[in-house]
Amino acid sequence: MSKTILIVDDSLSIRQLVKATLVSEGYGVIDACDGQDALNKLSGQRVNLIISDVNMPIMDGITFLRTLKSKPEHKFTPVVMLTTESQEAKKQEGQAAGARAWIVKPFQPVQLLAAVQKLVM
User: Fold this and answer.
1) Residues in CB range of 85: below 8 A, 6 or more apart
2) Is the entire prediction scored with pTM above 0.85?
3) Could you say which architecture CATH assigns to the domain 4-119?
4) pLDDT 10s per residue in the chain (121 long)?
């Protein structure tokens, strides 16, 4: 059974790049353009992992993460933040909200896949 991953990013090109990387490894992918869109798409849906940007309109990644983790069905869903943010304070805020990994853009697909494989096991 293939694992399903949700990609949340306001950049279409990033979503396409991440999706192509994951699909090539056999993962199923759902994508959303911001935190609110992601929450709507997650309703009643099980995903094995979420990859989210931090800076997005409507609902940013940290707010999305806090909202997600407050829901019992997603409390243990691993989340990777994929972002241009590299400041330690932002990373700590992300970890406090429940992020399991932090990858800074531009990223290497192998780096992303390594994090994904580790977290969806």
Assistant:
1) 54, 55, 91, 104
2) yes
3) 3-Layer(aba) Sandwich (3.40)
4) 689 999 999 999 999 999 999 999 999 999 999 999 999 999 888 899 999 999 999 999 999 999 999 999 999 999 999 999 999 999 999 999 999 999 999 999 999 999 999 999 7
